[in-house]
Amino acid sequence: SLEFIHEIKKLEAFGKTVMQKHGLDDEESIGNYWGIVETRAYMRVKALYAEELQKRRMFTAAAREYEDMLRLSVGDNMGARYILMGVYCQLEQLEKAKELYQRYPETSAQMLLPLILLSLKYDDELSAKRYYKDLQKENKSCKKVFGRREFDVESMFDAAEASDYLADSEEELYIAISNVMADFAVVLDMYYYE
Predict the structure, then answer these.
(1) CA–CA separation, 112 and 53 (whole Å)
(2) CB within 8 A of 29, min separation 6: which ones?
(3) C-alpha pair distances (Å), 128 with each of 1, 82, 137
(4) Residue 24: what pLDDT?
(5) HEC profile of 6-35
(6) Which of 87, 80, 147 is nearest to 117 (CA)?
(7) Partners of 31 in the beta sheet?
(8) Using CA atoms, how far apart are residues 95 and 142, in angstroms rounded to an integer?
């Protein structure tokens, strides 16, 4: 319910007040929040709030929260950049996605798959192919996941519900797909098979 979101927002606002009270809103702390043990509960509340916003398809508000999490913890020990990349894909914010990719230049599936979809949305097949080549180099399971005649929904749900996964694995590809599932599923025959 929206009431639940408001309660989490109150908790997040209270956490922000506590951070300020303890002097953790200074230049030395901002950017290093996950490294400061006292800030971790606050960061978890922010993550919960962003996730709940996203579940309710309040993508712009969710993006603001994930962006703030990255401002507070530049090292992104919580993986907010991956979810934010999926949100940018759903909002069709290609420039912001590219900026995020430049800030965190890794060739993981969770960074590249949204860029592939965004490139296709912007009718830039060349960039989509380039990102996909990078993804294939990094993750040898691409052929196994994308080479099937039909998308394996069950494997995706299993991977998304798992508590952990190996980098550059089939599971990581399915998690990346789950981050952009709304776009991926709606036009499955176009994006998946292309």
Answers:
(1) 23
(2) 19, 23, 36, 39
(3) 38, 18, 14
(4) 92
(5) HHHHHHHHHHHHHHHHCCCCCCCCCEEHHH
(6) 87
(7) 73
(8) 26
CA distance readout (Å), 121 to 55, 89, 114, 116, 140: 22, 9, 10, 9, 25
The strand pairing partners of 32, in sequence order, are: 73
Give residue-wise pLDDT tens across range 38-73: 999 999 999 999 999 999 999 999 999 999 999 999
State percent of the chain over pLDDT 70: 94
What is the mean pLDDT of the segment spanning 135-163? Answer: 83
Match 């990719």 to its residue by tokens: 101
CA atoms of 43 and 56, how far apart (whole Å): 20
pTM for the full predicted model: 0.89
Retrieve residue 53's tokens.
């916003």
Token pair for 190: 């176009």
